[in-house]
Write a structure and sequence with these properties.
- The chain is of the alpha/beta class.
- Helix content is 29%, strand content 23%.
- The protein has 19 helices and 26 strands.
- The strands form 5 sheets. Strands 9, 10, 11, 12, 13, 14, 15, 16 and 17 form a 9-stranded mixed sheet that branches. Strands 3, 4, 5, 7 and 8 form a 5-stranded antiparallel sheet that branches. Strands 19-26-25-21-23 form a 5-stranded mixed sheet.
- Strand 25 and strand 26 form a beta hairpin.
- The longest helix has 34 residues.
- It starts with 8 loop residues before the first helix and ends in a 12-residue tail after the last helix.
Amino acid sequence: MVRRRSRLLAGLATALALGVALPGVALPAHAIPDAAPRHAEYDPPLEISIDALTPGLLPTSGPLVVSGTVTNVDLETWQRINLYPMFGSTAPAMTTEEELSSAVATDPEAEVGQRYTDDLAVRAEVDSLGPGESTDYTIRIPQRVLRLMFATPTTGVYWFGVHALGENADGRDKLADGRARTFLPYVAPGAGEPVDTAVVVPLRGRVAHSADGELGRTSWWEEALAPDGTLGGPLAFGAAGNTRPVTWLVDPALPDAVSQLAAGNPIREIAPVAPVDEPSESDSPSPSESQSDDAGEGGDDGAEVGGATLEPDSTLVRAAQTWLDKAGSVLPDDTVALLPYGDPDLAAAAHALPSLYDTARKHPSPTLAAWGIEGTPVVASRNGYLDAGAIENVDDDATVLLGEQMFGAEDYPDGPPVGGLVGSRPVVPTSTATAKGGPGPDRALAPVALRQRLLSEAAIRMIAAHGGRPAPIVDVLPSGIDAADASEFWSQLDPALVSLVSLPTITHTNDLAAGADGAGRQIDPDDLTYPEGQVAAQLDTSVFSEAGAFIRAGRSLQSILGEGYTIGDTVVGEALAGTSYAMRDDSDAAPRLGRSRDWVTGQLDMVTLDAPQGVTLSSSSGSFNVAIANTLDHAVTVRIEAATDSEATIRAANPIVLAANSRSSVPISADMHGTGVHNVRLRLTDADGTPIGAEDELPIRSGQVGVVIWAIIGTGAGILFVAIGIRLVRRFRSRGQGSGPGEPGEVTA
């Protein structure tokens, strides 16, 4: 019996899984694990891709042209390979969401259509492919064949694919040795209005800083910023849309992080703001005196890695500069939907640190400001889920993007509502299923696979509208989108099915469709589906505890330095990025924020306070001095706040300005309202009264004891003067009595 594929594929599969090559076997670029087919159990000897399909709909005139590559992933040579088109025209068109979803999960070897082999001109031929070899193919299907295969098409979605039949050492059979499949929609004339569709391209990533402010995982950044990386790929994909409406979903922390890399990934420093006509020190790489304490921890598995400042001509610096140049030229001309700074885990933050949303929303991005981008505020998780607390914590006019899977059939039997509101917050459902791409077995997220899934979704919604206005599609593309052949995605988005618009346009259109007032539009967040698994995946509260402490410390440092510095914004930005959705699987998220906070508290600890061991006042009020030292290289302004009992009032000569590397003696006045000893704790604070760390305690003995002494002395003096007076009176009286008869010295007759 003829074998249809080699049973020696286990060796090649192992090589693919490990990313290594077998002797004499060249691994194709797309055969790495990240780009493996969705159905891992499907292991054909020949892999086929569909890289172009023109047009994207079943045409009513002209040919249908499909092209791509065929690759031999077997360990033996295949010869006389013929590639044929496959049509799913024998079954009724798919017309519902359920049918489309089921089709995506269909086994790749299931018979979903018939292979067309009747016309030798409608096929592609490959003479021979050795192990690891790949070649291009193109099949042109004329209109006469399409009319034959689709005699009476109806509006809906059909299967379309390519089958490869080859010959190996065991011969040839009629089973396909390789398959590729996708969807092919058809729209009958007058079927309905095109579907308003917003294609949203995300620019969000994991921004983790080491203890001294450097960005860690530089090897990851270098890969991500490449044209085919998780940051460079989406940017190139969206840019390929040219003048077509594109909405960029941007974490403002991301372009700031790339700017830091482009500047050489400098460490965090306290530096004054440069005058407008002078370059800032942060615009050029600053040498690192020492690597961070956690340098060398972990690797590309997600742990943080510090490192020395990058050389200006390093590969990473060049990649960052290229990415910035591209983003700076593309984003200002398109619609930008801005996430809260740092892309924080809103569900976890709503419970652990509710004030974080307002902080993240208001935090500025210097890079976006330099590009002149203000953007439209939105909130959106990475998987489409937001819990009720997160939604209700959005206290501005941000648009809330929710995955359609949150609108359960029990509460929303007609599907997600159009123009829904939570309070005054507009809610826009996103098509999570569409973003998952095509059915495979070839790459589900290939541009053509994504486009055909989007067009198919539009056809389904057009059918469901029954001639009315279809529900819009908001397609948030996956971050792993492949930029190669991105033009194929954009070029065949047929206007008969989709009308490309921006995200704000859909929000506005939804408002008009649902009515200007909020009557009947309110969505109860408690009715939305939020699985327990999502609760378990949220960031731990310890992350937000550390982030809150980090933010407070940074603001105190900014406060004592004054408006001539931006260290406070730097610290707040790092803290916000540390609470990102991207940190959900990072066990080091909270400790890393703690190490960064230690850097800030170390700067604050360089301003010290030294009080005397004790003070005894000579009266009920008086003054004494305390010593304050500033060992920072920058002037600071601080306050002294005192804590004592209600019978004492302590006042300092606030505010206190200390020059860089200086000491000062500060007078403290004390008023005592009772006798005894009063323990007083003196603290250094910022302008808002927040303690910055330095404090000292001293006892003050009340001067009321002196009053008693003076009273005793006064009383004694009074008694003395009275005694003297009595003695003088008696003396004068005794002299008067001695002048009578018979007294000595008296002369008588």
